[in-house]
Specification:
The protein contains 17 helices and 27 strands.
């Protein structure tokens, strides 16, 4: 059975580049149309109005072409933290016909080398603190394209200062009028999360990004909470604490907010107290967040010191949010918390929850123009309320993995459906529920145990601040056991705490889900920049401990 979106289909995306679409949309439909001098982006004492953003975007595009000598289809690496200048750099590069690689500025030498080996950029925009690292990696990976084109957004003795390349000369814009160019020419290259292996380059076209913007626009036009907020305050603020280099922050915060006329309050780095301070100061109304941040809003005592009553609408994405945490935040902040679901390969959003008809714990409905099939391990189509792998199709599905046709074929089937690797189901109302990653399910004596379910349960224990569950292999029983890593409150610490938590969990789950692999208290759960639990880091930690135990036993 193929499931369809309950929403009207989006109009066909216009054959134009992303910045042209965003600015034309904002000029017609947002508050920026009548007042272009309203602030679009603000960070500490630096702000860009909408008109300044448009002007700087043109100047960046011209500078990249006329002053740096870049050509259409060249790759440019945007290696930046959140900044008011991220938008004009990204949009300017796209306007110039370049392909933007967005990456984490905190990458280590090895991670950056992997990116360079994957796709060698012809230019890089970064911060001066990263200059030596970038130069070193370019040398070690024998990059022949960069030729010293390292631009920094802050002045330094080395590199090219961003404001020195801004230019008003004319330049040739790319022609995307043909269907092939619009749908198959890459615009953005984002890296997959790499939670189950080395990150792959996800190629997204101008058509992919514009389609997903339109899908979210149609959804919000049918969402009563957003409609009420817009009527009450057509020009309102959102917090930009999610990294722009991640596709969630890039599309739903950076690009979407410009198109819809929202002011973005930019946070270069997340801090719970700063988030609360900025929310109070700027009367933040909308926040796109990830579960680790929402957990802090639910449990951190810092929140009580600030007036967060302006916060009306929180969207949670990138990882599952438990029903309990969702309810706790809604009660504490008296605001709406709605889940969303997606993945880099889908540009990224595929599902969003409404505030009036979707139960807590659900990721909501399929976005407009999307289709879904749920399959079992043999590939058989499943019906409603049957758990299987979620597979999706729509105009937002990626071109493919960069220079990796085999991985692309393994992920997108012959019918055009993207196999997400996530396990879930759809109920009678068309609401979707994500159980866990297919590859991360724990197999205990033939039973499947979802780590996310146990993690959500552990988070309900009063002593637990954060949790992650992985499989550990028992040679004696020849099966996997679930093992939990937990971060606990200091005031709950006791010699019996681990046993207490284990018994507490066992009393609330079927016997096969019990934490037979044990519970280990650690200082912090490793997570990606988007908030996903890095279970592979914990698996590597466990493997190292197992090797040490085995060696010690031999001695």
């Amino acid at each position: 059975m193929i499931f369809n979106s309950p929403y009207p289909s989006i109009p066909r995306a216009p054959a134009q580049d992303i910045p042209t679409f965003i600015f034309e949309y904002a000029d017609k439909h947002s508050v920026f149309a009548k007042n272009p001098d309203l602030v679009a982006l603000s960070e500490k004492s630096v702000s860009l109005t909408y008109s300044e953003l448009r002007q700087m975007t043109d100047q960046v595009a011209s500078g990249l072409v006329n002053n740096l000598g870049l050509k259409q289809k060249d790759y440019i690496l945007v290696l930046l933290p959140n900044s008011v200048y991220y938008a004009p750099i990204l949009l300017g590069a796209l306007m110039a016909g370049l392909v933007c690689i967005t990456a984490n500025p905190a990458y280590t030498e090895g991670e950056l080398a992997h990116l360079f080996n994957l796709c060698q950029p012809s230019a890089i925009v970064t911060v001066s603190d990263n200059y030596r690292l970038v130069e070193k990696v370019a040398l070690s990976t024998k990059n022949q394209l960069l030729q010293g084109r390292i631009v920094t957004i802050d002045q330094s003795e080395r590199g090219i200062f961003l404001f020195d390349i801004l230019c008003d000369k004319p330049f040739d814009k790319q022609n995307l009028e043909t269907k092939t160019a619009f749908e198959e020419r890459p615009a953005v290259l984002v890296l997959s999360s790499g939670t189950t292996g080395k990150p792959k380059g996800v190629e997204l076209s101008h058509a992919n990004i514009i389609s997903n913007l339109l899908q979210n626009m149609v959804f919000e036009d049918h969402e009563s909470a957003v409609d009420l907020l817009t009527q009450r305050s057509p020009y309102h603020s959102c917090i930009a604490c999610l990294p722009y280099f991640h596709i969630y922050g890039l599309l739903l915060v950076l690009l979407f907010s410009i198109a819809r006329g929202r002011r973005q309050i930019v946070m270069p780095k997340f801090d719970i107290e700063l988030l609360c301070q900025l929310t109070e100061k700027h009367k933040i109304a909308v926040a796109h967040l990830v579960p680790p941040i929402i957990i802090q809003l639910a449990k951190n005592p810092v929140v009580n010191r600030y007036n967060l009553t302006s916060l009306a609408y929180i969207v949670s994405g990138a990882a599952p949010l438990t029903q309990e945490t969702q309810r706790e935040v809604q009660k504490r902040l008296n605001c709406i918390v709605a889940q969303a679901y997606g993945l880099s390969e889908a540009s990224p959003v595929t599902h969003r929850a409404t505030t009036d008809s979707v139960p807590p714990g659900s990721t909501g409905y399929l976005l407009p123009s999307m289709h879904c099939k749920i399959i079992d391990e043999s590939g058989k189509l499943l019906g409603k309320n049957m758990i299987g792998e979620i597979c999706l199709s729509g105009p937002n599905i990626m071109i493919g993995y960069f220079n990796n046709p085999e991985a692309t074929r393994q992920t997108i089937d012959s019918d055009g459906f993207l196999h997400t690797g996530d396990v879930g189901y759809v109920d009678e109302r068309g609401c979707y529920y994500i159980s866990d990653r297919k590859k991360e399910l724990i197999k205990y004596k033939g039973y499947q145990v979802a780590p996310a379910e146990l993690e959500g349960l552990l988070m309900d224990h009063p002593a637990v601040l954060d949790a992650a569950v992985i499989p550990v292999y028992s040679r004696s029983q020849e099966t996997e056991f679930p093992k939990a890593f937990v971060v606990v409150r200091q005031d709950f610490a006791s010699s019996s705490l681990v046993d207490d938590i284990a018994k507490w969990v066992a009393s609330r789950v079927a016997p096969y889900k019990a934490l037979r692999g044990g519970i280990e208290i650690i200082d912090a759960i490793p997570k990606s920049a988007s908030g996903k639990i890095l279970r592979k880091v914990l698996r590597e930690r466990q493997a190292a401990e197992d090797r040490l135990t085995k060696t010690t036993a031999k001695l």
